[in-house]
Amino acid sequence: MYNSSHGQRGNGSQPAQAPESNSGQFVVCGLGSLGQYCAAALKQFGLSVTAIDGTPPQYWDIPELPDIVDRLLIGDCRYLKTLEEAGVPGCRAVLIVTSEERVNIEIAFAVRSLTPNARLVVLSSQENLNRLLVQQLGDFVAFAPTQFPAKAFALAALGQEIRSFFTLHGHLFRVVQVDIHSQHRWCNYRLLQDLNTSTRRVLEYQARGARPAQTRYHWHPNTRIQAGDSITYIETTALIEPEATRTRRPHLSNWRDRLPSLSPQTLALAARQLWERLQQHQTQQVAWLSALIMGVLFLLGTLLYKLEYADIGLQDALNVALVLAIGGFDNLFGQLKLPFPIPWWLYLYSISLTVAGTVFIGVLYAILTERVLAARFEFLQRRSPLPRKHHVVLIGLTAIGQQVATLLQHLKHPVVGISSKTPDPGMLPTMPLVIGDLKNSLQRVHLATASSLLMLTDDEVANLELGLMAHAANPAINLVIGTQKPGFARNVSQLLPYARVLEINALTAEAFAAAALGENILTLFHLDGQTLLVTEYQVEARDTLNGLLVAEVAYGYGVVPIYCSKSNLEDLPFPSDDYRLQVGDRLTVVATTAGLRRIEQADTLPRQWLVQIDKALSSDAIFEAGAAITRIAGCDLPLARRVMNHLPGRLEYPLYHHQALHLVRALQQVQVSAYLVAMAGAESGGSTGSDPSAPAQGSTNPHAKNQG
Known about the structure:
Layout: E1 25-29, H1 33-44, E2 48-53, H2 65-68, E3 71-74, H3 80-85, E4 93-96, H4 101-114, E5 119-123, H5 127-137, E6 140-143, H6 149-158, E7 162-168, E8 171-179, E9 200-206, E10 230-239, H7 255-258, H8 264-280, H9 282-308, H10 314-325, H11 329-333, H12 344-376, H13 378-382, E11 392-395, H14 399-410, E12 415-419, E13 433-435, H15 438-441, E14 452-455, H16 460-473, E15 478-483, H17 486-495, E16 499-503, H18 504-517, E17 521-527, E18 530-538, H19 550-557, E19 560-565, E20 571-573, E21 586-591, H20 593-601, E22 609-616, H21 619-633, H22 637-644, E23 649-655, H23 657-669, E24 672-678
Helix pairs in contact: 1-18, 6-14, 8-9, 9-10, 9-12, 10-12, 21-22, 21-23
């Protein structure tokens, strides 16, 4: 992905370019399969969409699309007149997704000539050209057609539990949905609030038999987890090692620094280590032994000829020994009569030197041949053994298939690939791989114990046949089939309800639509019928987030903060509720479009809860409680001290429900008795009935004093 770095979107004053009905017009150029899905995805966000194509599509992948788009124009998108008629000069973003990448680049230049500010989202796989166009076209982002579906296929292969994953500032985040059963470790033992840790946050809770809620934080933190409940949470699962901290091999220029360490002891140690290594590799041992013997015979031959014929020089003696060593006996003694007198013992030694040289050259040729063959098949030897259970079988190492395999390996999930052709040796070198006929290869990958089967070949019929064979061998296997044809996807889904058929263009369109909304929207995923967007904000001096507690952002706007990069360069995954945002901080949240709109308009939800404080067990408790009130509630210290010095009393500072419960728990930890008081119109926020810590409106509930 290449995008522009000009300007900063997502600050509080222009907070995320949140999608809303009056936030500008979007234009889609090209109504092929991808273009139709892009237009439909933008309409799901409630946006105004104009679609353009050169000719009316012969086949509508989305039959209702002509009725749901705001305008449908027929014309060449490369012409300025067509773009002006579509309203490009005043639009917010243009998605250019025709089937010809060359045409897409032409349209991008035409659009930029009409509007300097509209965001350009272009379908293009020309990486170098895309990188150059970023500098020329400003707010420009280009995606390859196979860049995004891989993530959806990897998620489908992992099953229903993992709903999404993404990388953020070096941290890997996973969205996990868990259905609680009677033997689950959380069942009947954990409260929902216990699941919120420094590496995990609850996104959604659905009690047994209840319908999915459309708002965040509708659940009560004190709810005890029971069998039949469904919990969705987001967690950090790994930290990617920064490039600067990775171990690097010493550069060859440092050889001089290592010379002073050479000594008889180190040389002896090196020789011993070399001998031990040679003993482990028989081929190397034979090679070194042959070279040593040949070297001794060569030097001895040189010495003998020099001593026997004192009138020849050292160079002539070396030349005679070299000729004999490389099989040149006939060059010296091939005539009918010997060219010079030679003793019989030296004659026999010359024959022995020639024979030894011939044997050595044969050994050398054998070693070189072995090396060539080993280099040819080295990638197969390095691959891990085939996994035996709970693994993913991937058929088809296409561009998408390779990306899927990389993602699964990144998540440390066992995967084995099947390919009909030998892949490039440098491609996924550690991945277990079976080469050969696809149907026969299924019998070699332990299909009966595999968890999922992904079919990503370019032949939809072959994918279907392989899926049926796999289902017959393992009816419990999770089948995932990829296709480029929407009609095929719909028909197969109806005929094979146990298979998940994913249409590649539909998956790609969601990412294009998210990119059109703004570069601060990092990714998106679906949960219980809602689209959740991972959005980053930069806090500036006059925006809606400056000076707010993280709790006020979370509960006031109905979003889930998952990461905060502080202005002092400290990173906080899942920042604490009592952290106060400052200018320069970057806050990443998970939110619906409604939540993003509330942040942009500074439209906070009402604070409907007060905290009643009865008594403190000591003077130290009074002091610590005042600090806790200031930190968690966000009120000034004099107000907190005044309440604590006149107990029993009520903190006349409205709070959000989860924020108030957090304060009550903190006060109880310092031996201060407190409970909640509901203001007029307050809702308990619990999804399981009445709130035990929420008394009647305007009243207190002594029975609930110990209920956090």
